Amino acid sequence: MHWNSVGEFFAMGGYALYVWGSFGACVLLMVVEPLLAKRRLNEVRQSLRRERLADELDHQSGTS
Amino acid sequence: MKALLATVRRDILLALRRKSEVLTAVFFFVIVTSLFPLGIGPEPVLLKKIAPGILWVAALLSTLLGLPRLFAADHLDGTLEQMALSPSPLGLLVAGKIVAHWLLCGLPLVLLAPVLGLQFDLDASALGILTLALLLGTPLLSLIGAIGAALTLGVRGGGVLLALLVLPLYIPALIFGAGAVEAHIAGLDVGGHLSLLAAMLALAAFFAPWATTAALRVALE
Amino acid sequence: MKALLATVRRDILLALRRKSEVLTAVFFFVIVTSLFPLGIGPEPVLLKKIAPGILWVAALLSTLLGLPRLFAADHLDGTLEQMALSPSPLGLLVAGKIVAHWLLCGLPLVLLAPVLGLQFDLDASALGILTLALLLGTPLLSLIGAIGAALTLGVRGGGVLLALLVLPLYIPALIFGAGAVEAHIAGLDVGGHLSLLAAMLALAAFFAPWATTAALRVALE
Amino acid sequence: MLTVSGLACSRGERRLFANVGFALGSGEWLHVQGANGAGKTSLMRLLVGLSPADAGEIRWRGEPTPSVDFRREMIYLGHHAAVKEDLTPLENLRLSAALDGVALDERTALAALIRLGLRGREDLPVRVLSAGQKRRVLLARLLTRPAILWVLDEAFNALDVGAVKLLGDLIAEHLAAGGMAVLTSHQPLPVPGGKALVL
Amino acid sequence: MLTVSGLACSRGERRLFANVGFALGSGEWLHVQGANGAGKTSLMRLLVGLSPADAGEIRWRGEPTPSVDFRREMIYLGHHAAVKEDLTPLENLRLSAALDGVALDERTALAALIRLGLRGREDLPVRVLSAGQKRRVLLARLLTRPAILWVLDEAFNALDVGAVKLLGDLIAEHLAAGGMAVLTSHQPLPVPGGKALVL
Amino acid sequence: MGDHGRFKGCIGVSQSLIQWFRYASPQSFYPLAGRMIPWFWAAAAVFGVAGLWISFFVAPTDAQQGEGYRIIFVHVPASWMSMFIYLVMAFWAALGLALNTRVSGMMAQALAPTGALMAALSLWTGAFWGKPMWGAWWVWDARLTSELILFFLYLGFMALQAAIDDPRRADKAGAILALVGVVNIPIIYFSVKWWNTLHQGSTINLTKAPSMAQTMLWGMLLMALAFWMYSIAVALTRVRAIILERERHTEWVKHALE
Ligand code: HEM
Ligand SMILES: Nc1ncnc2c1ncn2[C@@H]1O[C@H](COP(=O)(O)OP(=O)(O)OP(=O)(O)O)[C@@H](O)[C@H]1O
Ligand SMILES: Nc1ncnc2c1ncn2[C@@H]1O[C@H](COP(=O)(O)OP(=O)(O)OP(=O)(O)O)[C@@H](O)[C@H]1O
Ligand SMILES: [Mg+2]
Ligand SMILES: [Mg+2]
């Protein structure tokens, strides 16, 4: 452990912009991408559920 | 006027429907600008020197690339015939198509040029001049290009003949547009270059729709 | 084999019938190479330095410009369907079309490049290398381009998507092709560059017709 | 209202027709007949003003034709599909109305498409439709764009039996409402009456 | 010789047809019928091997189809004109024969064009021909390219009365010589006999 | 003769593999992927935490580059993954073309955005490294350029697929493009050898001893593992969505939602 303070850690020996810019971009994109993928999955599921509901309603009105 | 807006809306809708179209015109611009450093080699001083020329030539070529499609699709499927027969004046519809073309092919280049210029290590004020010159120049390219596209419509040899007709007319825009940035880098005044560009734009805005309409009528005969 | 020759003959006949086509591809090459001196300004040393890069980029762009038409016309009017159903193997007909494309768009560039290079003040031996590199490189451009043309056939976004797909694949040819001439000017050995180009050409000659045929069958489905 | 006199047309060195003349009043229609290559399409294109005639004149309400009034009151559907393959039938219809400067709400457009038997296809891109369905999308414009003179070149091509009957009915309704029509077709037309012009 | 069984095809989410089967022997022909959008064109494209079927199989002389033999013995003419607008009818005919690897001398080609009523048009670029004349150029291939199975999609479209009769005769001759044909058309066909397949 | 037997055995194995791929239906793959995803997330988290710990608290300051070198811990994994994912994508594409399996096309389509993301990260972090080290955000160096080409290939693949509506056709066209683009991978990898460039040469080499501090190497490897697990997890999530989108009209999807 060679950091003497939190401030020193964040300063990254004067390379803060570059180091944090890189790590930050990675973290940001790697958080956003799974969320987007997950949302895509949820959207399909949602629309499938809606369709099934509609099917059921059709069926009910058809038989009654 | 409503018909003009309707045309703009329609063309933009069509382009968006083909999703990739808008993005890829821009990609072409990006790729062409990055081809030159590859062909020429990575010397920063040399690259900075030729940057304005390259950006302008790339803008010119990517406008050119989209031109054959400006009227061709409408011509092939008969929509252009219908436009010519429409109660709205054909000139208005044509103006709408030109505006849409600029919004789709010209404006993105203007917005992107500063970013690409950055890669060539141009400084902020040079980038400003570059953007301004492109803002005046790209509508000019669309207007002149429309005349060429209409003249070569349905003609044998299409796209390449179009390039042959249009490129010479683009040369003044290229010289003054790239010249403005170079003059600025050399520390000279750029007012002259830019006002010449503006004058050419005004002239073209006045005559090009008219010439294009006439050429389209001939193509439809 | 007879079918291959028949395709070559047919495509050349069609191109000659549209007279302007052959000439204008060449004109495009000429005009693009002469745009740069206009955009960049007339400094002989600078121009000589960037000459190989510019000539190669121009060759690449003028090949690209003709690519969308490689299969499009045959697709639109249904001839491609007939080819796919013909008793002659489709791969052979496709190879014929690629050969014809090179004869029409590639070969003229090779023949013209020395003349244009002369304008940029390149000396005789550099011109020789340039011609040799183009002779190996332009068929490569046609082969790779054919794959792209087949993949984007009838797809929304057509021509520009094609550029997006094909240009990245052209980059190695550009680097080695222009690199050969630059290396020669710098007094280095060019054998490595040229043999790499030749290797890429052999690879492409082997795989491209196959990939193109597969892509065409997909497009026809 | 439409009077044509002394019309002549040649293509290449071939004279297709000369001295063609006719007049159409409200409720009347003209059947242009002739073998392949006789010049029917050429005549139609002269009529609507897409190409100039060698001789003769065409008057609409007494005015020489390519007038704005004429363009507003005439609709021409040719050999071409004239629909955008990437758009849906509904979008095609609404956008072409917008270009003509005609207001067209979604309801009317949809009704027209359904009348032409495109129910369930309103939201597909035209590209995937069958040959006959593409023609129907074009024909839907007859319902959404008010016009007095209908100029239809081989409009019955590629249509199935039901659609042929439907289009016949549409034309008959249009004539009954005081409209006019100029038609070509190689099949017998399911529209009663009509003058014939043989080229 | 042509046996089809259990053929199924869907487009998008729509099932166009399933379990289509038939057999054609020498001298027989099949009339594929159905409303616009029923799937006639789609069926033809499956038959000739342009697109893959969802299920089912197609055999020619007992072999599964996209075989070289099948391609040699079959000719398919679709909705498209499939002629080069810049070439003359004669050039079109000879070049397409060359692509198929068939020898075709000028005399035979000319005779075919004349039989199809294109006399005097052999040397015009196809671009200037009328709609019906373009179709005739395509149909001339039936005479110059020997084939056993003719697959013709709406071949009677755009033809005038004389040409319809002529094509009917051609088909009848072909059948009498032991050929086979699969046809679609919305009009009644001037060919006697024939099985019907309604989609 | 013994060889003969082994040869036969080989055929048997490859045939059963082919059978497996052929019947690896979306229907059975969908739940399987669902069960695997949490494990990959967990692995990604573990490796990620360990890797970050080493990158920031264990690895020593570099003698030449100071703290700036720490970018290596994201730059190299992202670069590796961008190339590796392309290879995997091309593998699935080839499989789809050869065996006409449904899952392969979906896998290729699911991998592309993640690959593009990795290529973008490689470019981004490289640029953020280049500015302090070389004094420029971007230079037209061979490796940088070929990585840019890779990024464009990913974009091209996605644009091509987006431009074709029929999924079957989109898969096949995409597969052909992916296979053609594979030539770019060796170019990226060997570019530092073939041209004398600004970019770092290989530090990891199978034949030579690593020229890098042991702890740095460990940090890089752990981060690479984390990126790897992450990529698998995201791609599987996306492939599940794609399976449902494409198979929405089949019976099994209606029951798979419970
Ligand atoms: C936008 C700019 C950059 C791009 C696109 C890029 C791309 C790549 C790629 C693709 C690799 C993996 C290739 C391999 O492992 O052989 C890599 C590795 C590496 N890069 Fe970069 N890079 C960039 C900038 C930089 C900079 C500025 C530095 C340092 C000054 C750097 C240092 C390294 C190192 C040390 C490796 C590991 C090499 C190895 O271990 O094999 N890169 N880079
Ligand atoms: N340059 C030319 N030289 C000679 N003849 C020409 C030329 N251009 C066109 N033609 C002829 O002019 C005629 C044009 O006919 P048009 O298209 O009007 O026919 P149509 O009656 O509509 O036929 P169809 O029933 O086939 O649609 C054709 O016979 C064509 O061969
Ligand atoms: N993606 C899709 N989604 C839904 N339906 C589709 C899709 N693609 C095609 N179709 C439908 O498939 C059918 C294709 O029909 P096809 O072209 O085979 O008809 P056809 O019988 O030849 O008709 P025509 O008589 O009009 O030529 C059409 O009804 C079309 O609407
Ligand atoms: Mg006609
Ligand atoms: Mg059909």
Tell me about this structure.
The complex is a heterohexamer, with one copy of chain A (64 residues), two copies of chain B (221 residues), two copies of chain D (199 residues) and one copy of chain F (258 residues). With 221 residues, chain B is mainly α. Chain B has one domain. Chain B is built from nine helices and no strands. Chain B starts with a helix and ends with a helix. In chain B, 61% of the residues are buried. Chain D folds into two domains: 126 residues, Rossmann fold (3-Layer(aba) Sandwich); 65 residues. Chain D has seven helices and nine strands. With 258 residues, chain F is an all-alpha fold. The N terminus of chain F is likely disordered.
- The helix-and-strand class of chain A reads mainly alpha
As a percent range, the share of strand residues of chain B is under 5%
Count of beta strands of chain A: 0
Largest sheet of chain A: none
SSE sequence of chain B, one letter per element: HHHHHHHHH
Q: What is the H/E string of chain A?
A: HH
Specify Rg of chain B, calculated over alpha carbons. Answer: 18 Å
Mean pLDDT of chain A: 82
Tell the overall outline of chain A. rod-shaped
Q: What's this model, at a glance?
A:
Chain A has 64 residues and is mainly α. Chain A contains 2 helices and no strands. Chain A has a domain of 40 residues.
